[in-house]
Amino acid sequence: MHFYIERMQQFSTPDYITITYRADLRMIVARWLRPTSSPETREGYHFILKAGVHFSCPYWLLDGRRRLPADTETTNWALFEFFPQASAQLGQRVCLSQLLSPSYQQATDTIPAIQQLEEAPQTYQMRRFNDEAQAVDWLRVCQQYALQPS
Q: How far is 16 from 55, CA to CA, in rounded Å?
């Protein structure tokens, strides 16, 4: 079942995630609604990618404030397999703005791969935030940068 709302389209998803396309912001907004298992986390990311492909939208706001950090295997899968493949499937660099609770962000601060991926050019860009307005602003900067002539 799909719900249509002016300027937004929400997708039918399992109970642990909502995914909305915000046409006014030109971004996918995915909100994790509860802690998830590794299979649910992976499945949730596949739902997000489906929405991204459907709208040719590489700008994703991922609200993980209600979710716990993923296990190491799932984190590595997302960072080194899923996100690079998502950019390849979309044919453009995906920009991931992760909205995290302060404790979740602190937990991710101890993962060296995340700092390396945020600092070095990749097939995707990722930043972590505790404030939703800052998370959205960063995606808007990514959109503006993408519009600049090369």
A: 22
Residue length of the chain: 150
Burial (CB < 10 A; 0-12, 13-18, 19+), residue 67, is: buried
Read off the pLDDT of residues 84-132 as tens digits, 9 standing for 90 and up.
Answer: 999 999 999 999 999 998 888 888 887 777 777 777 767 899 999 999 9
| Alpha carbon distance 41, 75 (integer Å) | 10
Taking the C-alpha atoms of residue 28 and residue 51, their distance in angstroms, rounded to an integer, is 7
Task: Count Cβ atoms below 10 Å from residue 142 Cβ, excluding itself.
Answer: 20
| pTM for the structure as a whole | 0.87
